[in-house]
# Entry
Amino acid sequence: MNGFLNVLENGEEFGSILSSIQKMSLPMGVIGLSDIHKAHYVSALCEKLERKALIICESESTAAKLCEDINFMSGGALVFPERDFHFSSDDVCSREYEQQRIGVMGAILEGNFRYIICTAQAASQLTIPPEELKKRTVNLRCGKSISVEETVCALVLAGYVKSELVEGVGQFSVRGGIVDFFSPDMKEPARIEFWGDEIDSISFFDTETQRRTEQVDEIRICPSMEVIFDSNNAFLEKLNEFSKNIKGRGSQKAKKTIADDIAKLESGVSIFCADKYISLAYERKATLFDYMTDAVLFVLETKAVKQSFSGFEKFFSEDVKAMFEEGQLTKGIDNYHISWDEIVSVYENLGAVYIDNFARGSFDSPVHSLLSINAGASSGWDGTLSYLTEDLTPGIAGGKTCVVLAGTQKNAKGIAKDLEAEGIKVQYFETIPDNFSKSAVNVIPGTLSSGIDYPSLKFMLISYRKGAAQKSGRKIQKSTKKNAKALLSLEEISRGDYVVHEAHGIGIFDGIRTMEVDGKLKDFIKINYKGTDVLYIPVTQLDLLSKYISPRDSDKPVKLNRLGGDEWSKTKNRVRRAVKDIAAELAKIYAKRTSTPGFAFSPDIDMQSDFERRFEFDETDDQLTAINEIKRDMEKPYPMDRLLCGDVGFGKTEVALRAAFKCIADGKQCAILVPTTILAFQHFQTLKKRFDGFPVEIEMMSRFRTVSERNKIKKDLKSGVIDLVVGTHSIIANSVQFKDLGLLIVDEEQRFGVAQKEKLKERFPLVDVLTLSATPIPRTLNMAMTGIRDMSVLEIPPLDRHPVQTYVLEYDMSVLSEAMGREIRRGGQVYYLHNRVDSIERTAAEIQKAL
# Structure
């Protein structure tokens, strides 16, 4: 065992967990461990027990972080991802996640792993049974007697597709006595050269150059897909037999779909939607749990895992329902994962070790024992020497074993020298030692996701993390990059779009024309105006154009301007006068609001501080500033009206939740208004997780609720039973009465119409209002910039934030709202149909091409 694992060995808590697993006194519960401690304890326990582990966690991002930490401490951790099922032949068929899963399952059968980490969703999905995976896996070695034909048969049986050149996983090619193939468990494709009916050599090769890279003695062919039939004839036979027994509603559509698949198979064409026939492919259903029958099972953050699975199940059932209506699925081929009850049954049978950060009530199954551990985690160290010595000083003085992970080897050596220059005794190690020095600071290359502190074991670890910032007053530098973008780029407009020229008014964009001017070819933007009027603008004057935005409730055709007339000047003057009138009226409204007596909230209580401490990330400076500004407004004796502006993922929701908690702590109710049912559901899940452990009653009002549920929510809001409600515009209906509403949070204000906003002002004139927006409408933004409304801005992105790529399908808005917030995986990327979308800008064909 290395030093990391030996740290825990003599601890009383570690011994208790170890004993419970050895005696099979399971399930058991452990609380008090954050993510980094979970990685530490799980790796140490399995190392000591010499057993494999299956770790169930909330999300794939958590799984990836956990995998990195465990691999640094111990090694042998693999992530088992969730996959996409392809139900239609029109699906864009990427099998990257499926092939990763097969690679992991192959490693399990070979024993080449120590820890498998996944979500409950991934573990629940049906897959190829272990005996089928073994049957379709062929080991090859130099000198083995096997013909080219037999090898090709093995590849076909394993689901590989023949191609001229092997460029991706799941492909094979044959050229005389040479067979190339790319197995899911390989980093590079393999090349087998035959001498007659014997393997002469095996090597890997580069897909770009097609040249050999490394020679090996043996290799294996493992399946390239999770759903494989023995042959096309076997597939046809099962489809024909199944089709005869289809009955009930929608059976004709389903029979036609299956008939089309049969016709393709009969003509020798492969179908890309074989996934939906997984129940026909194998005699028994199997999941990852069938591969891990002897493993120690750890379930991390049980309530979050259950909530995540519940959301997955709800969305998946909606997809299946839609496929039923289209005739893509029918009874008998509609089961693709096991239920939550079946998962809980596995927990009980394997004997789960539940590990949570905080006590959250009962676990998913009864436990034999419950253990609480005192452990602390610290945010990453940013590399500053003064901060490091400041953090190490109390540890050294307290006689703790101190470990510093300093990133790269070069950086670690430099830090070791710098600490010695500061008079601190240092022990430098190239790799993790068997035992850490107790008399010196241990400096090692490498990183973990956060630091570790075990007070009872007198152990502390500080880990370097690029870009890290400490909470204790250490600031993140604000970006000097401007947020403002150019008015327009050529990619933002298409031929036929209405555009507005600053001087000439509304016209139609008619593409780019190359024209000769003074003997030189130049590009011009062509704009068609009323009649036959045409204007050519150099592309260098693109900033004079803007995209025309029509009123949302207007179906009237757009009126084009003429060139050279005064019509456009009159229009601009008329708008200027109207804007002045509106501005004067708005100024009166908001001046009246600030002079109207309202409720002054009390200063923060201890529970508010406890709630804020449980936030698992470091707040940015902008977040802390915004939180203080909002609290200050809420404590004033007149109603708050503040705009919180920040890009997607900059932490607006957390700021709003702290305001909500402050409101509820003073005995008031809080309502969160959102534009779509999907966003309401997402916020509801976040609220339940964030407020867990606090005496706050939370509900959601949307069409996801039945009529009886909505009536009960209305009754509870009126009586004051519900403290916090999130929902669509239905929560501001006249039929909904609050006992004592104190704060209204409006998310994505730009998605609501003028009529809805006026209704808000009319119904809640004395209530504090907090508006959240990533893209505020010009009127709202102007009011904030001119001081009519107060505004807080989040400009600093949180650490490790990933950019969001947004793609929007051209559908009816009601259909689009159903898809908001969903994710699509294609080619190793995750694409979101995002809920923050104001216009439909891409056609379905373009999306498909992009993916």
About this structure: The chain has 25 helices and 35 strands. The chain has a mean pLDDT of 82. The radius of gyration is 31 Å. Residues 656 and 745 are 7 Å apart (CA to CA).
